[in-house]
Automatic annotation (TrEMBL):
Protein name as catalogued: Aldo/keto reductase
Signal sequence range: none
Phylogenetic placement of the source organism: Bacteria, Bacillati, Actinomycetota, Actinomycetes, Kitasatosporales
Matching Pfam families: Aldo_ket_red (PF00248)
Organism: Streptomyces botrytidirepellens
Superkingdom: Bacteria
Entries under Gene3D superfamilies matching the protein: NADP-dependent oxidoreductase domain
InterPro entries registered for this protein in UniProt: AKR2_Oxidoreductase, NAD(P)_OxRdtase_dom_sf, NADP_OxRdtase_dom
Domain NADP-dependent oxidoreductase: 49-292
Length: 317
């Protein structure tokens, strides 16, 4: 599937941008500005309609990679409904999801915990069946959610054997990463083999102008033949208000979010960068990054530990 993802991304400049459903699959998330972006009454049906509006707009614009996860509330269900209603699109998109976090907020925005992480074999088997029941044969990519260097997912031979069986069924197996040591997790994942072959064929990591520390490891992953998916290119909305991006956007006649995404897409090792849009207007603005030339930007990078500390303090809204 890493090949099919790369082929889909190579079709047009816009198709190097994928649509992530984290912001619209559940009522609470940590993107800044969601209080303005989403309906005040975030019922299941209201969020289903919003996700379908975004999927319609993204597909019409040429987006061909769609990203969900078990922990994104009902994102897999919303996506499955959309695929059933639009068979012409179902055979034309690459669908990825992730396992390893369980959504526990029960559709409450004020929950004490929204998701629980567990990379055990038992969680994989449970969540794989849940994903299979919803997405069935549409699923092309299944990633372990938020791998860190100490994750048992990197060293558990029983889990690796099960993931290898999934790969033998035609589903590409990958990882996503998080935290200040993403580079270490990526490099460890590149060494994991099953039956003498690399197990993890895709890597999805946070990379943006504030947190570029995984860049060298992602370049190594690309050089080793892995597809690279970038998430959180907007730093959970923090970059939308960055003064340097506002000035650059004014010069180019575009928007700060397009600048932030274009800064990611100009990296030669990026296969797909995800839009986390919560509105169709945001999606169209994000898509302005495709083919956008950039001026030189000042270095905005924060120390990784500081970046992730700030991220962990963002409120669920």
């Amino acid at each position: 599937m890493s090949g099919s993802l790369a082929a889909a991304a190579a079709a047009t400049p816009v198709s190097r941008i994928g649509l992530g459903l984290a912001a619209v699959g559940r009522p609470g998330y940590i993107n800044l500005g969601r209080d303005r972006d989403l309906p005040a009454d975030r019922t299941v049906e209201a969020m289903r309609r919003r996700s379908h509006e975004l999927l319609d707009a993204a597909y019409a614009a040429g987006v061909r990679y769609l990203d969900a996860a078990r922990s994104y509330g009902l994102a897999e269900e919303f996506l499955a409904d959309w695929l059933r209603a639009r068979p012409e699109a179902a055979g034309d998109v690459v669908v990825g999801s992730k396992w390893g976090y369980t959504y526990v907020a029960d559709w409450r925005m004020d929950a004490d915990a929204h998701e629980v992480k567990d990379h055990s074999v038992a969680t994989y088997e449970r969540q794989r069946e849940e994903t299979r029941a919803l997405l069935g044969g549409h699923l092309a990519l299944y990633q372990i959610h938020s791998v860190t260097p100490d994750s048992p997912a990197l060293t558990d031979p029983a889990l690796h054997a099960r993931l290898a069986r999934l790969a033998a069924e035609g589903v590409t197996v990958g990882i996503s990463t998080s935290g200040p040591a993403q580079g270490d997790a990526i490099r460890a994942a590149l060494e994991v083999e099953a039956d003498g072959e690399p197990l993890f064929r895709t890597v999805q990591s946070t990379y943006n102008l504030l947190e570029p520390s995984a860049g060298a490891a992602l370049a190594e992953a690309h050089a080793a033949g892995r597809a690279v998916i970038v998430k959180e290119a907007m730093a959970n909305g923090r970059l939308a208000g960055a003064e340097v991006l506002r000035h650059a956007a004014e010069e180019l006649g575009t928007t700060p979010d397009a600048i932030a995404l274009a800064a990611v897409l100009r990296q030669p090792w990026v296969t797909v960068a995800l839009s986390g849009a919560a509105t169709v207007a945001q999606l169209w603005s994000n898509l302005g990054a495709a083919g956008l030339g950039l001026p030189e930007l000042e270095d905005l990078a924060e120390p990784p530990e500081a970046y992730w500390r700030t991220r962990s303090s963002l409120p669920w809204s």
